[in-house]
Amino acid sequence: MPREFSHAIAVVVYVAETVCDVIHSTIARLQTQHPDAFIAISGDFNHVTLDSTLPDFHQFVSCPTRKNRTLDLLYANVREAYTATPLPPLGKSDHNLVLFMPQYKRQIQRQSTTKRSFRKWSPEAAEALRDCFECTDWSVLQEAHGEDIEGVTHCTTDYLNFCMDVVIPTRTLRCFPNNKPWFTSNVMDILNRKKRAFKDGDGDKLKRVQRELKVHLREAKEDNRRKVEHKLQHNNMREVWEPHLNCT
Questions:
Q1: Helices 203-233 + 185-200 axis angle, to 10
Q2: d(C-alpha 84, C-alpha 94), whole Å
Q3: What 3-state DSSP class applies to 218?
């Protein structure tokens, strides 16, 4: 299952006109509980549609399912998830079968992987940078530009960046569009260990790594929750709502 989906939920219905409100409330509850889930709704709709009840869902059956009428529908909350192909009825059924072929492209295929660089700060690096600034003769940088404030500003900024490039190590990470914001490099390392244990057929190691992964996932989600709450408390709405690309 694509990583961007946390769950796959299938809802089977037999619809009368009075049931639309029940379907709406049920789907709303499921989306509240699992906001990243893939949800599909299928069944005999009896000439009733969910176009106005669930406008964010997309309907994929484009062929008649009973004689010349389309009674059986399939809705999903992902656009371009399937293509429908009609098939003959099963046994003595008076409804045709419909074959749905997935055509959904994963987010990692629709969006390219990007790279992000950042400085890896540490107490030792901060102390080394402080020593660099203390032994700098700032008058040499300022006297060369006289009263040109803009020139002094650019020269000082370039020198500060030069010192940080020399003292503070820079790390470049790959950012994958389908990872969750709590999917850290530590979680990725444990997940790779789980894959290796499965490939080696080591059942005992696989169970140990799975338990460790479960603990780290819970800690990573809790840490991400605290970060989001901290941004909300400081009214930093731009960072709260900006797209999160996790990097490894």
A1: 160
A2: 19
A3: helix
